[in-house]
């Protein structure tokens, strides 16, 4: 491996000392849009406002700010990515808290055995940790849904489009009696064509990936069943006694600005968030595919173009992550290989597959993405 490392370093002609961290999916690539938008997305909260714990005592999710719920429903309606009629909205501290809450709500407090939590590999690397972190007696991680051979007492986490590989996913154990949570963090038009409004029992969304506001820590669940919704809200009550109102107000404003970019006819073209995101990702994917082709050492998933109900035209898929596979017999561990280039990636092992895969964030700032492309392009 040492020998390979030095070969790789020898292949680099520039920027070799700076470490580029593309391990996390930190969505900073959207910053220029929000800079350009300026004051219209600014939120000011007077010191005396939003002080109470309570937002809407009549709602089973009593800590949900009505203006946030309204803007979330409005944006889903404009985009056409999810059914919101007759759904309860549960707000969470990111969709991470909502995954915890959904597992709690779907598992039984009475069960003698913990319920198995599964997801088809490659699965989002946090799922196993979330399922096992608290060593709960109610649920535990049971690995790849495709090879799972337990009984009907399972919860399948279905991530679509999938993190890490961008595939549109359906439940692997779709015909069985188990329960399902659909994590739809990336079902937005900048990443993938909008095929139809998703209509699952529990669907999770997050501003982190929808708008780039990961630091605001706001996610939301659309939940069909009132009892499940109530249990999810109970989990959040016990965990954090609700969710920051300040963050909900900010998230509401951000969603509103995006909605207005499409609903107010007089706004300039530059105010269309999904157009901005798609254009930037299209450019990055085109450059990455070209660099990968020239290097001949790696491969990437291919996606068919499909009709997008939002853009009203054939559209390509531009996932938030590049799921790279080594096609070079001498590179067994792609994460180690990229480390020799001072590029940090996430190892395939963390997603339940082999080290010949890595996940690379496509969502970082331009400057980091440019260095990444330069380093791949200058490999010998
Ligand atoms: C598939 C998926 N689900 C959930 C999350 C968690 O997002 P957050 O807690 O920031 O809302 C992420 C973040 O990367 C993700 O990729």
TrEMBL record:
<dbReference type="InterPro" id="IPR006948">
    <property type="entry name" value="Alliinase_C"/>
</dbReference>
<dbReference type="InterPro" id="IPR015422">
    <property type="entry name" value="PyrdxlP-dep_Trfase_small"/>
</dbReference>
<keyword id="KW-0032">Aminotransferase</keyword>
<dbReference type="GO" id="GO:0016846">
    <property type="term" value="F:carbon-sulfur lyase activity"/>
</dbReference>
<protein>
    <submittedName>
        <fullName>Tryptophan aminotransferase-related protein 2</fullName>
    </submittedName>
</protein>
<dbReference type="InterPro" id="IPR015421">
    <property type="entry name" value="PyrdxlP-dep_Trfase_major"/>
</dbReference>
<dbReference type="GO" id="GO:0006520">
    <property type="term" value="P:amino acid metabolic process"/>
</dbReference>
<keyword id="KW-0663">Pyridoxal phosphate</keyword>
<dbReference type="Pfam" id="PF04864">
    <property type="entry name" value="Alliinase_C"/>
</dbReference>
<comment type="similarity">
    <text>Belongs to the alliinase family.</text>
</comment>
<dbReference type="GO" id="GO:0008483">
    <property type="term" value="F:transaminase activity"/>
</dbReference>
<dbReference type="InterPro" id="IPR050478">
    <property type="entry name" value="Ethylene_sulfur-biosynth"/>
</dbReference>
<feature type="domain" description="Alliinase C-terminal">
    <location>
        <begin position="20"/>
        <end position="379"/>
    </location>
</feature>
<keyword id="KW-0808">Transferase</keyword>
<dbReference type="InterPro" id="IPR037029">
    <property type="entry name" value="Alliinase_N_sf"/>
</dbReference>
<dbReference type="InterPro" id="IPR015424">
    <property type="entry name" value="PyrdxlP-dep_Trfase"/>
</dbReference>
């Amino acid at each position: 491996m040492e020998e390979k490392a030095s070969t790789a370093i020898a292949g680099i002609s520039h920027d070799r000392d700076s470490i580029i961290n593309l391990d996390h999916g930190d969505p900073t690539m959207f910053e220029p849009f929000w800079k350009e938008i300026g004051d219209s997305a600014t939120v000011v909260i007077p010191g005396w406002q939003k002080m109470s714990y309570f937002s809407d005592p009549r709602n089973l999710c009593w800590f949900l700010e009505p203006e946030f719920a309204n803007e979330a429903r409005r944006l889903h309606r404009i985009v056409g990515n999810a059914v919101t009629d007759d759904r309860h909205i549960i707000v969470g501290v990111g969709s991470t808290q909502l995954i915890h809450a959904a597992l709690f709500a779907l598992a039984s407090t009475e069960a003698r055995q913990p319920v198995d939590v599964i997801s088809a590999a490659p699965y989002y690397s946090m799922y196993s940790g979330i399922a096992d972190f608290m060593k709960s007696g109610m649920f535990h991680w049971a690995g790849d849904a495709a090879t799972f051979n337990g009984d009907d007492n399972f919860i399948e986490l279905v991530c679509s489009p999938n993190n890490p590989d961008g595939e549109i996913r359906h439940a692997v154990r779709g015909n069985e009696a188990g329960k399902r949570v659909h994590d739809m963090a990336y079902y937005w038009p900048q990443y993938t064509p909008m095929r139809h409004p998703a209509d699952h029992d529990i669907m999770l969304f997050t501003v982190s990936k929808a708008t780039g506001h990961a630091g605001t820590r706001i996610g939301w669940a659309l939940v069909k069943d009132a009892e499940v919704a109530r249990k999810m809200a109970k989990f959040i009550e016990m965990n954090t006694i609700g969710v920051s109102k300040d963050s909900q107000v900010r998230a509401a404003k951000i969603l509103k600005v995006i909605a207005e970019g499409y609903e107010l006819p007089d706004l300039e073209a530059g105010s269309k968030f999904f157009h901005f995101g798609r254009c930037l990702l299209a450019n990055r994917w085109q450059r990455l595919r070209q660099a990968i082709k020239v290097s001949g050492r790696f491969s990437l998933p291919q996606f068919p173009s499909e009709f997008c109900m939002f853009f009203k035209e054939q559209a390509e898929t531009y996932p938030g992550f590049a799921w790279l596979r080594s096609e070079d017999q001498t590179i067994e561990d792609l994460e180690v290989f990229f480390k020799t280039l001072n590029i940090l990636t996430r190892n395939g092992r963390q997603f339940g597959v082999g080290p010949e895969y890595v996940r690379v964030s496509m969502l970082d700032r331009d400057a980091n993405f440019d260095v990444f492309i330069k380093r791949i392009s200058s490999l010998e």
